[in-house]
Protein backbone atom coordinates (compact mmCIF):
# COMPACT_ATOMS: atom_id res chain seq x y z
CA UNK A 1 0.00 0.00 0.00
CA UNK A 2 3.00 2.32 0.36
CA UNK A 3 3.76 4.68 -2.55
CA UNK A 4 6.24 2.76 -4.71
CA UNK A 5 8.61 5.69 -5.33
CA UNK A 6 8.80 6.42 -1.61
CA UNK A 7 9.50 2.76 -0.95
CA UNK A 8 12.39 2.85 -3.44
CA UNK A 9 13.63 6.12 -1.90
CA UNK A 10 13.61 4.62 1.61
CA UNK A 11 15.52 1.57 0.41
CA UNK A 12 18.23 3.69 -1.24
CA UNK A 13 18.44 5.95 1.83
CA UNK A 14 18.67 2.99 4.21
CA UNK A 15 21.30 1.16 2.17
CA UNK A 16 23.10 4.30 0.92
CA UNK A 17 23.60 2.40 -2.30
CA UNK A 18 21.59 2.16 -5.53
CA UNK A 19 22.99 -1.30 -6.17
CA UNK A 20 22.09 -2.68 -2.73
CA UNK A 21 18.63 -1.10 -2.88
CA UNK A 22 18.05 -2.74 -6.27
CA UNK A 23 19.03 -6.13 -4.85
CA UNK A 24 16.77 -5.63 -1.84
CA UNK A 25 13.78 -4.67 -4.00
CA UNK A 26 14.50 -7.25 -6.72
CA UNK A 27 14.76 -4.50 -9.34
CA UNK A 28 17.41 -3.56 -11.85
CA UNK A 29 19.73 -0.73 -10.85
CA UNK A 30 18.58 1.47 -13.78
CA UNK A 31 14.96 1.01 -12.62
CA UNK A 32 15.90 2.24 -9.13
CA UNK A 33 17.75 5.24 -10.57
CA UNK A 34 14.75 6.06 -12.77
CA UNK A 35 12.38 6.03 -9.77
CA UNK A 36 14.65 8.34 -7.77
CA UNK A 37 15.01 10.78 -10.68
CA UNK A 38 11.22 10.81 -11.13
CA UNK A 39 10.75 11.50 -7.41
CA UNK A 40 13.28 14.35 -7.52
CA UNK A 41 11.49 15.87 -10.51
CA UNK A 42 8.17 15.59 -8.67
CA UNK A 43 9.61 17.16 -5.50
CA UNK A 44 11.63 19.78 -7.38
CA UNK A 45 14.78 19.14 -5.32
CA UNK A 46 17.80 16.85 -5.33
CA UNK A 47 17.49 14.11 -2.75
CA UNK A 48 20.96 12.57 -3.03
CA UNK A 49 24.50 13.79 -3.61
CA UNK A 50 25.48 11.03 -5.98
CA UNK A 51 29.09 11.43 -6.99
CA UNK A 52 29.80 8.12 -8.66
CA UNK A 53 27.31 6.36 -6.39
CA UNK A 54 24.88 5.19 -9.06
CA UNK A 55 27.54 2.93 -10.46
CA UNK A 56 29.89 0.69 -8.53
CA UNK A 57 32.09 3.38 -6.98
CA UNK A 58 31.60 6.11 -4.42
CA UNK A 59 28.87 5.93 -1.78
CA UNK A 60 25.98 8.36 -2.05
CA UNK A 61 24.72 10.77 0.61
CA UNK A 62 21.37 12.34 1.40
CA UNK A 63 20.97 16.05 0.81
CA UNK A 64 19.25 18.16 3.45
CA UNK A 65 16.03 17.86 1.42
CA UNK A 66 16.53 14.10 1.29
CA UNK A 67 16.84 13.90 5.06
CA UNK A 68 13.62 15.86 5.48
CA UNK A 69 11.76 13.65 3.01
CA UNK A 70 13.10 10.48 4.67
CA UNK A 71 11.52 11.47 7.98
CA UNK A 72 8.13 11.90 6.31
CA UNK A 73 8.56 8.78 4.18
CA UNK A 74 9.12 6.70 7.33
CA UNK A 75 6.04 8.22 8.96
CA UNK A 76 4.00 7.51 5.83
CA UNK A 77 5.18 3.88 5.77
CA UNK A 78 4.29 3.44 9.45
CA UNK A 79 0.85 4.98 8.87
CA UNK A 80 0.16 2.68 5.93
CA UNK A 81 1.29 -0.30 7.99
CA UNK A 82 -1.21 0.67 10.69
CA UNK A 83 -3.89 1.07 8.03
CA UNK A 84 -3.13 -2.41 6.70
CA UNK A 85 -3.47 -3.88 10.20
CA UNK A 86 -6.72 -1.97 10.75
CA UNK A 87 -8.19 -3.30 7.50
CA UNK A 88 -7.07 -6.82 8.42
CA UNK A 89 -8.78 -6.39 11.79
CA UNK A 90 -12.02 -5.44 10.06
CA UNK A 91 -11.79 -8.51 7.84
CA UNK A 92 -11.04 -10.74 10.83
CA UNK A 93 -14.13 -9.47 12.61
CA UNK A 94 -12.23 -8.35 15.74
CA UNK A 95 -14.59 -5.62 16.91
CA UNK A 96 -16.81 -4.88 19.87
CA UNK A 97 -16.21 -4.44 23.59
CA UNK A 98 -13.24 -5.77 25.54
CA UNK A 99 -13.82 -5.79 29.31
CA UNK A 100 -10.35 -6.36 30.73
CA UNK A 101 -8.98 -6.43 34.28
CA UNK A 102 -5.38 -6.40 35.49
CA UNK A 103 -3.72 -6.53 38.86
CA UNK A 104 -1.96 -3.36 39.92
CA UNK A 105 1.62 -4.02 38.81
CA UNK A 106 0.52 -5.42 35.45
CA UNK A 107 -1.86 -2.51 34.81
CA UNK A 108 0.72 0.12 35.64
CA UNK A 109 3.97 -1.27 34.28
CA UNK A 110 3.24 -4.01 31.71
CA UNK A 111 -0.05 -3.32 29.94
CA UNK A 112 0.27 0.25 28.59
CA UNK A 113 2.67 -0.66 25.76
CA UNK A 114 0.75 -3.82 24.83
CA UNK A 115 -2.63 -2.08 24.88
CA UNK A 116 -1.37 0.77 22.72
CA UNK A 117 -0.12 -1.62 20.05
CA UNK A 118 -3.27 -3.77 20.27
CA UNK A 119 -5.64 -0.84 19.80
CA UNK A 120 -3.64 0.42 16.83
CA UNK A 121 -4.01 -2.98 15.20
CA UNK A 122 -7.67 -3.39 16.21
CA UNK A 123 -9.12 0.14 16.25
CA UNK A 124 -12.72 -1.12 16.19
CA UNK A 125 -12.35 -2.60 19.69
CA UNK A 126 -13.84 -0.58 22.58
CA UNK A 127 -11.72 -1.17 25.69
CA UNK A 128 -12.69 -0.86 29.33
CA UNK A 129 -10.05 -1.65 31.97
CA UNK A 130 -10.27 -2.11 35.72
CA UNK A 131 -7.31 -2.62 38.04
CA UNK A 132 -6.98 -3.94 41.57
CA UNK A 133 -5.11 -6.59 43.49
CA UNK A 134 -5.10 -10.19 42.29
CA UNK A 135 -7.98 -11.21 44.56
CA UNK A 136 -10.12 -8.37 43.21
CA UNK A 137 -9.44 -9.29 39.56
CA UNK A 138 -10.12 -13.00 40.12
CA UNK A 139 -13.40 -12.09 41.82
CA UNK A 140 -14.38 -9.86 38.87
CA UNK A 141 -13.77 -12.76 36.46
CA UNK A 142 -15.69 -15.23 38.63
CA UNK A 143 -18.64 -12.83 38.80
CA UNK A 144 -18.44 -12.28 35.00
CA UNK A 145 -17.84 -8.54 35.35
CA UNK A 146 -14.86 -8.85 32.98
CA UNK A 147 -14.11 -11.29 30.16
CA UNK A 148 -10.38 -11.61 30.81
CA UNK A 149 -7.96 -10.71 33.58
CA UNK A 150 -4.20 -10.67 34.04
CA UNK A 151 -2.96 -11.42 37.55
CA UNK A 152 0.36 -11.47 39.40
CA UNK A 153 -0.03 -14.52 41.59
CA UNK A 154 -1.97 -17.76 41.88
CA UNK A 155 -5.75 -17.67 41.51
CA UNK A 156 -7.32 -19.14 44.63
CA UNK A 157 -10.78 -19.90 43.22
CA UNK A 158 -12.08 -22.95 41.36
CA UNK A 159 -14.42 -20.88 39.19
CA UNK A 160 -11.54 -19.57 37.07
CA UNK A 161 -8.92 -20.95 34.70
CA UNK A 162 -5.40 -19.53 34.26
CA UNK A 163 -2.70 -19.59 31.60
CA UNK A 164 0.81 -18.17 31.83
CA UNK A 165 1.51 -14.95 29.91
CA UNK A 166 5.07 -14.13 30.96
CA UNK A 167 7.46 -14.45 33.89
CA UNK A 168 8.34 -11.79 36.45
CA UNK A 169 11.01 -11.56 39.13
CA UNK A 170 10.51 -9.93 42.52
CA UNK A 171 13.64 -8.15 43.73
CA UNK A 172 14.61 -6.51 47.03
CA UNK A 173 15.06 -2.75 46.79
CA UNK A 174 16.68 -0.43 49.32
CA UNK A 175 17.47 3.27 49.55
CA UNK A 176 20.96 4.14 48.21
CA UNK A 177 21.86 5.34 51.74
CA UNK A 178 21.00 1.97 53.29
CA UNK A 179 24.04 -0.12 54.42
CA UNK A 180 22.87 -3.01 52.24
CA UNK A 181 23.20 -0.84 49.11
CA UNK A 182 26.99 -0.93 49.37
CA UNK A 183 27.09 -4.61 50.30
CA UNK A 184 25.19 -5.61 47.15
CA UNK A 185 24.11 -8.93 48.68
CA UNK A 186 22.82 -10.10 52.06
CA UNK A 187 21.91 -13.39 53.73
CA UNK A 188 18.21 -14.26 54.19
CA UNK A 189 18.56 -13.92 57.95
CA UNK A 190 19.50 -10.26 57.64
CA UNK A 191 16.03 -9.46 56.29
CA UNK A 192 14.65 -9.71 59.83
CA UNK A 193 16.66 -6.66 60.91
CA UNK A 194 15.12 -4.07 58.55
CA UNK A 195 11.64 -2.49 58.45
CA UNK A 196 9.78 -4.30 55.66
CA UNK A 197 7.25 -2.65 53.36
CA UNK A 198 4.68 -5.14 52.02
CA UNK A 199 1.68 -5.07 49.73
CA UNK A 200 -1.76 -5.39 51.33
CA UNK A 201 -3.42 -8.73 52.07
CA UNK A 202 -5.11 -10.12 48.96
CA UNK A 203 -2.27 -8.91 46.74
CA UNK A 204 -0.65 -11.50 44.50
CA UNK A 205 2.73 -9.85 45.08
CA UNK A 206 2.40 -10.26 48.85
CA UNK A 207 1.31 -13.88 48.50
CA UNK A 208 4.34 -14.73 46.33
CA UNK A 209 6.80 -12.95 48.65
CA UNK A 210 5.33 -14.55 51.79
CA UNK A 211 5.56 -18.02 50.26
CA UNK A 212 9.17 -17.56 49.09
CA UNK A 213 10.30 -16.17 52.46
CA UNK A 214 8.57 -18.98 54.34
CA UNK A 215 10.37 -21.55 52.16
CA UNK A 216 13.63 -19.78 53.05
CA UNK A 217 12.86 -20.20 56.76
CA UNK A 218 11.55 -16.66 57.26
CA UNK A 219 7.84 -16.72 58.14
CA UNK A 220 6.17 -13.33 58.15
CA UNK A 221 6.06 -13.17 61.94
CA UNK A 222 9.87 -13.18 62.01
CA UNK A 223 10.07 -9.93 59.99
CA UNK A 224 9.66 -6.33 61.10
CA UNK A 225 6.67 -5.41 58.94
CA UNK A 226 6.59 -1.62 59.01
CA UNK A 227 3.68 -0.98 56.62
CA UNK A 228 1.10 -2.66 54.41
CA UNK A 229 0.74 -0.58 51.24
CA UNK A 230 -1.86 -0.79 48.48
CA UNK A 231 0.42 -0.45 45.45
CA UNK A 232 3.89 -1.27 44.18
CA UNK A 233 4.44 2.43 43.53
CA UNK A 234 3.81 3.12 47.22
CA UNK A 235 6.51 0.62 48.19
CA UNK A 236 8.99 2.23 45.78
CA UNK A 237 8.14 5.68 47.18
CA UNK A 238 8.50 4.37 50.74
CA UNK A 239 11.95 2.97 49.98
CA UNK A 240 12.95 6.27 48.36
CA UNK A 241 11.82 8.04 51.57
CA UNK A 242 13.91 5.61 53.70
CA UNK A 243 10.85 4.14 55.42
CA UNK A 244 12.07 0.59 54.90
CA UNK A 245 12.99 -2.03 52.31
CA UNK A 246 10.67 -4.02 50.08
CA UNK A 247 10.23 -6.63 47.37
CA UNK A 248 8.78 -5.38 44.08
CA UNK A 249 8.51 -6.48 40.46
CA UNK A 250 11.57 -5.83 38.35
CA UNK A 251 9.18 -4.30 35.79
CA UNK A 252 8.32 -1.56 38.31
CA UNK A 253 11.74 -0.08 39.02
CA UNK A 254 13.19 0.89 35.64
CA UNK A 255 12.69 4.62 36.18
CA UNK A 256 13.78 4.58 39.84
CA UNK A 257 16.98 2.72 38.96
CA UNK A 258 17.77 5.12 36.12
CA UNK A 259 17.30 8.03 38.53
CA UNK A 260 19.42 6.28 41.16
CA UNK A 261 16.74 6.54 43.87
CA UNK A 262 16.70 2.81 44.71
CA UNK A 263 19.21 -0.03 44.60
CA UNK A 264 18.58 -3.73 44.01
CA UNK A 265 20.15 -6.00 46.63
CA UNK A 266 20.56 -9.73 46.05
CA UNK A 267 19.40 -12.06 48.81
CA UNK A 268 21.73 -15.07 48.72
CA UNK A 269 19.94 -18.27 47.84
CA UNK A 270 16.60 -16.51 47.38
CA UNK A 271 15.07 -16.13 43.93
CA UNK A 272 11.45 -15.00 43.77
CA UNK A 273 9.94 -15.62 40.36
CA UNK A 274 6.27 -15.70 39.48
CA UNK A 275 4.02 -15.83 36.48
CA UNK A 276 1.83 -13.09 35.15
CA UNK A 277 -1.19 -15.12 34.07
CA UNK A 278 -4.36 -14.71 32.06
CA UNK A 279 -7.47 -15.63 34.02
CA UNK A 280 -10.97 -16.31 32.68
CA UNK A 281 -14.11 -18.18 33.67
CA UNK A 282 -13.61 -21.94 34.01
CA UNK A 283 -15.57 -24.10 31.59
CA UNK A 284 -15.48 -21.42 28.89
CA UNK A 285 -13.03 -20.17 26.29
CA UNK A 286 -12.29 -16.54 25.51
CA UNK A 287 -13.72 -15.32 22.20
CA UNK A 288 -13.96 -12.21 20.07
CA UNK A 289 -11.92 -9.23 21.24
CA UNK A 290 -10.85 -11.01 24.45
CA UNK A 291 -9.40 -13.95 22.51
CA UNK A 292 -7.68 -11.59 20.07
CA UNK A 293 -6.12 -9.65 22.94
CA UNK A 294 -4.97 -12.84 24.66
CA UNK A 295 -3.21 -14.01 21.49
CA UNK A 296 -1.74 -10.55 20.86
CA UNK A 297 -0.40 -10.16 24.41
CA UNK A 298 1.07 -13.66 24.33
CA UNK A 299 2.86 -12.97 21.05
CA UNK A 300 4.05 -9.50 22.04
CA UNK A 301 5.14 -10.01 25.61
CA UNK A 302 6.17 -13.60 26.17
CA UNK A 303 9.22 -13.27 28.47
CA UNK A 304 10.26 -9.92 27.00
From TrEMBL:
This protein's UniProt keywords:
DNA-binding, Transcription, Transcription regulation
Q: Does the keyword Zinc apply?
A: no
Name the PANTHER family for this protein.
HTH-TYPE TRANSCRIPTIONAL REGULATOR, HTH-TYPE TRANSCRIPTIONAL REGULATOR CYSL
Q: Which organism is it from?
A: Edaphobacter acidisoli
Q: What is the lineage of its organism?
A: Bacteria, Pseudomonadati, Acidobacteriota, Terriglobia, Terriglobales
Output one GO MF annotation. transcription cis-regulatory region binding
Name of the protein in question: LysR family transcriptional regulator
HTH lysR-type domain sequence ranges: 1-58
Entry's Pfam families?
Answer: HTH_1, LysR_substrate
What the record says about family reads: Belongs to the LysR transcriptional regulatory family.
